[in-house]
Structures are given as C-alpha cells and as structure tokens.
Amino acid sequence: MEHEDPRARILDAAEELFYGQGIQAVGMDAVRSASGMTMRRLYQHFPSKNDLVEAYLLRRDGRWRASLAVYVSRSGGTPREQLLAVFDWLGRWFAEPGFRGCAFVNSLGELGATTPAVAAAARHHKEEFGGYLAGLAEAAGAPPTTAVHLTLLAEGAITAAAVHGDPTAAADAKQAARILLDAALPR
Amino acid sequence: MEHEDPRARILDAAEELFYGQGIQAVGMDAVRSASGMTMRRLYQHFPSKNDLVEAYLLRRDGRWRASLAVYVSRSGGTPREQLLAVFDWLGRWFAEPGFRGCAFVNSLGELGATTPAVAAAARHHKEEFGGYLAGLAEAAGAPPTTAVHLTLLAEGAITAAAVHGDPTAAADAKQAARILLDAALPR
DNA sequence: GCAACGTGAGAACGATCGTTCTCACTGGCG
DNA sequence: CGCCAGTGAGAACGATCGTTCTCACGTTGC
Description:
The structure is a homodimer.
Chain A: H1 6-21, H2 28-35, H3 39-45, H4 49-75, H5 79-95, H6 103-111, H7 116-140, H8 144-164, H9 168-184
Helix pairs in contact in A: 1-2, 1-4, 4-5, 4-7, 5-7, 5-8, 5-9, 6-7, 7-8, 8-9
Chain A binds a DNA duplex through helix 3.
C-alpha cells in the first residue's frame, strides 16, 4: 500500500486536500506531508503546482465518469431506466462523507478566471457528461433536447446538494427527470 | 459620482474584483486602488478582508434577488408566465459581459470549507431563491415539488452557462420548465 | 577503499498577502 | 499663533506560499 506508485500517492493526497479545502487553500507543503514525500520528489513528479492541479482534475474527471458509467451500465435496465439511474448514482455521491460539490465547478470559480487550463478542464468534464447523457437519451429514443434538460437537472442537483448539504436533491431531480422523459417518450 | 458613499465605492470595487477574479486572487491592495481609497480608510470601513467579503456577498444577494423580482413582476403575466420569466431574466444575466456564474457557488467552492460565514451566505442565498420560486409556484397553483424542480433547472442553467460561457442554457431550462409546468398544471 | 552521484530532510529565498505603523501635513479651536 | 486630532500616502511587518538550494549521508561502480 505504501510502495504504491509515487505519482498515485501524490495525486491521492492532492485530490483529498484540493477537493476538500479548495486549491488555493492547500499549500504544496501540505501535499508533501500528506503524501509522505519529500519536496524534491514531489517536484520531480509535478514541476509546479499548476501541473499538479491539472493532473488532479484530469484524473478525477476520468474516475468520476468511469464510476458513473459502471454504475449505470450495471443497473441493467432499459435506456430509460439507465437515464434515471444516473440520478441514483448522484444521490450516492452526494451522501458520501466529504462531498463538497463538483470539483470542476469549484476549481472553475476559484481559478477559472486566471488559469485557462482549469477552465478548459471544467468545460471538458461537463461536455463529456452531457455527451454521455445524450448517448443514453438517444438509445432511449428521446430527443437531444431531453438530454440537455436532464443535464441541467443533474447540474442543478449537484449544486443544490453542495450548498444545502442535502442528498435529497438527487431524488428531486430524478422525479423531474421522470416527468420530462414521460413527456418525451409517450408510452 | 466620486463623492459617493465610501462604503459603496469600496463594495463596488470589491464586487467587481471578487466576482471577476475570485476572492483569494484579489488582494486588499487591489480593492484599495480600485476604490480610490487609502488603506486606512479601507480598514476603517471593513476591519478585515473577511468583513469585506461578507458585506460583498450580503449586498450582492439583496441586489440579485431584487433585480430578479423586479423583472418578473414587471413581466406582468400570469403566475405561470412569471415562473417562466425567471428563466428569461437568467438569460439576460448570462449574457452580461463578465458573467462568471453564481457568486455564491463560486465563493462556496473557494472558501466554504474554511469560512463558515461564506457557506452560510451561499445557503441563505439559495434558500431565498428557492423560496421565491416556491411562492410563484404556489400562486400558479403548482405543487411545491414543481418549484423544487424549477429551482434545480435554474441552478443547472447557471452552472452550465458559467462553464460553457453560453447563455442558451437559460432557454433550454425554460423549455424544460414549460414541460414540467404543463405536466403539473393540466389545462 | 574511494570517488561520484542520487536522495532525504528541511532550510532558504523571493514574492505576495493581510494588516498595522510611521510621519509629514492639514484644518479647526483656544 | 500654537496645539492637536485626524488624514493621506505608503512603508513596514510578520506570515505564508511556491520553488529552489544546501548539505550530510548512503549507495554504487571501479
């Protein structure tokens, strides 16, 4: 466990700290001590804090979307049920200890105006998520606009859950999604 | 114009800087020079940066919600049309130059974990907004759950517009809101 | 055995930040 | 006129940050 890939150990520590406290609130020394590294080795793997931040966002994007896709595909229902399962996955995420909203929205608000790479990472993450929902919607036979609507509901649920610290936003969004799907897919 | 209330001049400068660049990215010296103040006078009105941040959020909350309420009430339609006018107002906001998402969500992501007053301000802002939509929904004869759904759509539209820099999220959300209202208020 | 090198641990450096202090100066009051 | 309370302008201070440097030490190759 401790002979892990040093890069992974650093990214693990960085992710927990950056996501939990905000990027600017975490100094490189905190990352160093949390990862059990020395300064030299830390900067060997990530030549600057910006590089570490970008790697953090990139890895989190991949893991987040993979976790969602695995959950949804294992839910094993119809495409319509898979679209609704997205909100179940959101509800589980919201209930995780330490949930603090979307890492990309948070980093965008904090650094988006000054660090273009952060803004680009957030845009990419949201585009991929929207594209994923669009794919599910297409499989369900729903028009693309419905996918956009569900994307907005999901985004809103993430924000609401973060602000109020209340995971029920996922169930609320799921309920609305069901109504929209029913309207788009008359049975 | 320049003999304005010093407090207002400071808050004007702070709002533009904090909202446009993030709170931590703006130093007190930048606020001082942008407001044409001296350090002494700046700290006379706001004894610490935290006080200034809280005042910034408080004033922005009041102005934001007042501007929305004025727009909606002047739209002069039925309660149902007023609910939809909320999304028109959002669209105008998104198209304003310098739009960078919700100031409260941004500050929550940046400072929410370390500054309870910021988290409380964000919660208050979102609760007031949700309550406002709930009032409109009640007047329209829609169930409270519909108000929650529209609130999630509005939140999602704000986030989407901020991430993609694209004001059309407001029209998308309005379209979804219409569907939800039609389902809740059969005519 | 020894020289060369890479590493650990942390001090050091320069920049920046929030906040306070200095100091010359101004205007009102006796 | 003389005094003093308050101000403007900005330097100063202590803390913190990102990043680099020092230096003693252990290891490796000859």
